[in-house]
Amino acid sequence: MALELEYDRSLYGKEHEAGPFEVTEDMIISFNQSISQMGACYNDRDAAVEAGYRGIIAPPTLCTLFVRRVELPDINLKFGKTRFHGGQRVQSKTPIVAGDSISASSHLKEVYAKTGRSGTMVFIVWETTFTNQLGEVVADVQESYAARE
Amino acid sequence: MTNENQTYFEDVELGDEIGPLEKVATDEGVVDFCTLWGNPIPNRFTSDEEAAKAKLPGPIVPGVMSMSLMAQLITDWAGPDGLKDLDVVFRQPVPHNKPLIITGTINDTRQEDGENVVQCDVLMTGTEGERYIIGTALVSLPSRS
Amino acid sequence: MYFDLHCHSVSSDDSRATVEQYLKWIQVLRKRGYTVDGIVLTEHRKFDFDKDYSQLADDYGVIVLKGSELDTRFGHFLVYNVTQGLANDIDFADVRMDARELMKAAQHHGALAIPAHPGRFGIGLVEFMDKGETFEDVKIVERLNGGGRPGENERADELCDSMGYLGTGASDAHLASHVCTCMTNFGMDICNEEDLVAALLSGEFSPVRLEETSIT
Question: Has residue A38 been placed in a domain?
């Protein structure tokens, strides 16, 4: 008996938007502290300006904090009880600078099944594009969540 | 700004290793991260009870936090704006308060659209052979000339 | 000839290595004194009929063959010499297929299906045999897997020793620098997928770690 995936396929092609989110110096520095991120351009405004940036820049993965602020619809997957984070990709296009306003737009990219050490899993992949107040794409983030039996 | 620790494209070769960088995600660091992330506490990343509900042996490090730790291997090496693409697969739950060893291996160097591109395999492992996270990074490096 | 019989390119969802990156990495290994003759791309739950790696293979002097790694209800199976007929008879994306039917269908179409990482916890063939399942068509298993956790290859060793199975070796690479960490040493020449199946059926092979191929 093959595994037929049941979920809301009408979600393909729909964008779900959120933001803008203000990225403050405090937020960047708190992020750095929680992961012991050193680096002058991430922590010191003068050093960042000297290096040619408009202000303190955010480490490339900071945008991942905003992914879950997009209200994503339930895809109504008829499979599994628990979910876990299967993978993530961040493609940085241009640095996020303290003071930027970042908007997010997410869409459903893919849903597929596979088996692993813990049994059958179904992966749900969402893709989010972040854009700053200048209209520049700062990053694309792909997150995959696995539903497990 | 000149940085004496800056890595240049001319200095790297296929097969070179990057790191290791050793990090520890402490209980406190995870709580701080979750607070900033906006994930209500307690959750499976901070509490034994919530972790047990999710059938985990104990609270784990969030994937987004683990990935941020891995990114440091590259930004320490290539500069704050050098990491262009980091793509990881979470293979095993990452534990709190244990050494997390982050390493990279250069598997390709090329010039693409006028940029010096270096492709690396990246790994986060434990001290007893655990392979927590695997992935690749695409890095842009400056040229000496 | 030394062949890595199990690796994944970006065509598989969880791999991050392109075929060219594997071939470049094999040049690094050769420079370090190791011997590698070929690889088999065994993509998850599919077979890439439309992909042709012959130009890349020529450019880098590595034999590149194609196969599949299929999910079944009794663990993952590596399939070599996949034909259109086999793909018509078996739904490669069906993660709950019966491995016994897959093995029979493979044999019928001139292909060969063998259990991948049989000692793997939770999903290896050993788990299902322990529950009383029997697999009369299994003669060869992947004994040495480069992606194993501590204890898993040892379980595969015990399985081979107790059942008299022949064992292959492969990296199960998902990253470029992991390719060929484990391989299979064949006593005969292999140029294509049909040769590979013939070489496996001949029984003239053994699993090796990369270090054992050193010519220095």
Answer: no
Chain A interface residues (partner B, CB cutoff 8 A): 27, 30-31, 33-39, 41-42, 47, 50-52, 57, 59-62, 64-65, 67-69, 82, 84-92, 95, 142
Q: Could you tell me if C171 and C179 are in contact, meaning their C-beta atoms sit under 8 angstroms apart? A: yes
Phi, psi of A20 (to 5 degrees): -75, 150
- CATH code of residue C190: 3.20.20.140
In whole angstroms, give the CA distance from residue A33 to residue A40. Answer: 13
Tell me the nearest-neighbour CA distance from A115 into chain C, angstroms: 6
- Chain-centre distance of CA C196, in angstroms? 11
Closest residue of chain A to C127, computed from CA coordinates: A117
Q: What is the pLDDT of residues B78-127, one digit of tens each?
A: 999 999 999 999 989 999 999 999 999 999 999 998 999 999 999 999 99
In-domain check, residue B98 = yes
For residue A1, pLDDT beyond 80: no
Interface of B with A in 66-125 (CB under 8 A): 67-69, 71-72, 75-76, 80-81, 83-90
User: In whole angstroms, what is the distance from residue A51 CA to residue A40 CA?
Assistant: 10
Asked if B88 and A33 come within 8 Å (Cβ–Cβ), the reply is: no
- Reading the block at residue A33, the tokens are 């502290």
Token output for A69: 């602020």
Neighbouring residues of C74: CB distance < 8 A, sequence distance ≥ 6: C98, C99, C100, C115, C125, C128, C133, C135
Which residues sit opposite A110 in a β-bridge? A125
Which residue is associated with the tokens 């209200």?
A: A71
What are the tens digits of pLDDT across the range C191-201? 999 999 999 99
ipTM: 0.94
8 A C-beta contact, residue B55 and residue A82: yes
Q: CA–CA separation, B71 vs B74, rounded Å?
A: 5
CA separation for the pair B87, A142 (Å, rounded): 9
Neighbours of B110 (CB within 10 A): 11
Q: What is the CATH number of the domain that holds B74?
A: 3.10.129.10
Specify whether the CB–CB gap between C8 and C15 falls below 8 A: yes
> By three-state DSSP, how is residue A2 classified?
coil
| Under 8 Å between Cβ of A138 and A130 | yes
Task: Please report, for the domain that includes residue A112, its CATH number.
Answer: 3.10.129.10
3-state secondary structure of A56: coil
